[in-house]
Specification:
Keywords: Aminopeptidase, Hydrolase, Manganese, Protease. The protein has about 450 residues and is α/β, with parallel strands linked by helices. The protein has 16 helices and 19 strands. Strands 6, 7, 8, 9, 10, 13, 14, 15 and 17 form a 9-stranded mixed β-sheet that branches. The chain has a 5-stranded mixed β-sheet with strand order 2-3-1-4-5, with helices on both faces. The protein has a 3-stranded mixed β-sheet with strand order 11-12-16, with helices on one face. The two termini are about 30 Å apart.
Length: about 450
């Protein structure tokens, strides 16, 4: 589905955005019929309230959206989308009340409130279109919204239709649309081209493992995105219990996120040289699955002791990161649904990230606030390096003890980047319950924040 603003404001219903503090002033200036209707319906400008006001013929003559108080708004985001869900089908235009500095975010949220994953079953919903508010770049906002929709669609698709080959197909479609180059290394060719850990993790599955390599742009700073593409994770021989396996179609959420971010970059024509690397595998159980206590040799030459086959994401990312680092781009960013420890630390709504670069942190934090895309900085805590050093090999893929799991995973990945600025995002990629502009299911995290940070970060 395509998310877009109304093509015209002809016949659009005027929508007044009203705070609790401003309600009495607004209603007192209205005619008696409107006052009576609004008060009878209990509208007071509370956050997320939506009310349609009929005219003499019964058709809506205007609508109201409650914008609450500053304190209430601070506890959530996409408040206009919450109100939109309570309005009847129709086309709306903002008549008054929406602060200028919130127009882009609220318009973006309205677009995302129209998202439905309808590949397998029709999703009925009222069609509520919005005329793009004055002063926003409507085309850019539509690109961001549809890029987020791509990420959601990829995550929501079950592994039966989103295996490594299907993920490759999605990447090829994106590359073709924007004129990007794409190369894919598959199966035993991974061994021949020195990507052994990607091959090892994925070799037990029916669909061959692969590395997807997309390039776009011929001038500007170099940005490389690396996304974890584990299309389904059984845990391997360290088999997950059923309850833990239920959401593992989303274990390629990092790949979905970097493809969504790549679409934002290409769709808005940012002047940079983009590379996207996605190790696409299934972590399956078979006679040739890799085993606990195996020792693997990575592309970088570092050896890794396998103490849990369910810690496979860092293995495939490690080879891809080593490959990315060989070009020494200006910035490498990895995104992955990597650890349960990150969820325990910050919950599903925040995207924890790791960076030691002050300029990166400053640019990202500012953009995250501006785009209503929350992130939380976590530390590359050097004293924990010993926790990933087992002695029998250079690295341990699953340190014992259970402490600081997202930090030790990030430290593991950092060992494979030595010549480039590096940041890592340990995202969840899933909205566990319905929220304004966020349907239950797959969701993008930190991609809009990163998109907004790139101009400052890379001097674009």
């Amino acid at each position: 589905m395509s998310l877009s603003f109304a093509p015209s404001e002809d016949g659009a219903i005027p929508l007044f955005v009203i705070t609790e503090d401003g309600f009495e002033a607004w209603v007192s200036e209205s005619d008696a019929a409107v006052q009576g209707w609004v008060r009878a319906q209990g509208f007071k400008g509370s956050l997320g309230q939506g009310l349609s006001i009929p005219g003499p013929d019964g058709a809506p003559q205007m609508a109201l959206a409650g914008f609450g108080t500053a304190r209430a708004r601070a506890r959530g985001r996409f408040h206009l989308a919450a109100a939109a869900g309570k309005l009847p089908a129709g086309t709306y235009r903002i008549a008054a009340g929406l602060p200028e500095d919130q127009r882009e975010t609220e318009a973006f949220g309205w677009l995302l409130s129209q998202y439905r994953f309808d590949r397998y079953a029709k999703q009925s919903a009222a069609d509520r279109l919005l005329v793009a508010p004055d002063g926003i770049d409507a085309a850019r906002i539509e690109t961001l919204a549809n890029s987020e929709a791509l990420t959601r669609d990829l995550i929501n698709t079950p592994a039966s239709d989103m295996g490594p080959a299907d993920l490759e197909k999605a990447a090829r479609a994106l590359a073709a649309h924007y004129g990007a180059e794409i190369n894919v290394i598959t199966g035993d060719d991974l061994l021949e081209q020195n990507l052994p850990m990607i091959h090892t993790v994925g070799r037990a599955a029916d669909q061959a493992p692969r590395l997807i390599d997309l390039r776009w742009g011929d001038a500007g700073p170099r940005l490389t995105l690396v996304g974890k593409g584990v299309c389904f994770d059984t845990g391997g021989l360290n088999l997950k219990p059923g309850a833990s396996m239920g959401l593992m179609k989303k274990d390629m959420g990092g790949a979905a996120a970097v493809l969504g971010l790549a679409r934002m970059i290409m769709g808005t024509g940012l002047p940079l040289r983009l590379r996207v690397l996605i190790p696409a595998v299934e972590n399956a159980v078979s006679g040739n699955a890799f085993r606990p206590q195996d020792i693997l040799t990575s592309r970088k030459g570092l050896t890794v002791e396998i103490n849990n086959t369910d810690a496979e994401g860092r293995l495939v990312l490690a080879d891809a990161l080593a490959l990315a680092d060989e070009e020494a781009p200006d910035q490498i960013i990895s995104m992955a649904t990597l650890t349960g420890a990150a969820r325990v630390a910050v919950g599903p709504d925040l995207a924890p990230y790791f960076s030691d670069e002050p300029d990166f942190v400053a640019a990202l934090e500012e953009a995250a606030a501006r785009h209503a895309d929350p992130v939380w900085r976590m530390p590359f805590h050097a004293p924990y390096e010993t926790m990933i050093e087992p002695g029998i090999a250079d690295l341990d893929n699953a340190p014992k003890g259970g402490f600081a799991g997202c930090i030790t995973a990030a430290l593991f990945l950092r060992r494979f980047v030595t010549d480039s600025a590096y940041a890592h995002f340990d995202i969840y990629g899933w909205q566990p319950a319905e929220a304004p502009a966020r349907a239950k299911g797959g969701v993008g995290q930190a991609t809009r924040a990163l998109y907004g940070a790139l101009p400052a970060l890379l001097d674009l």
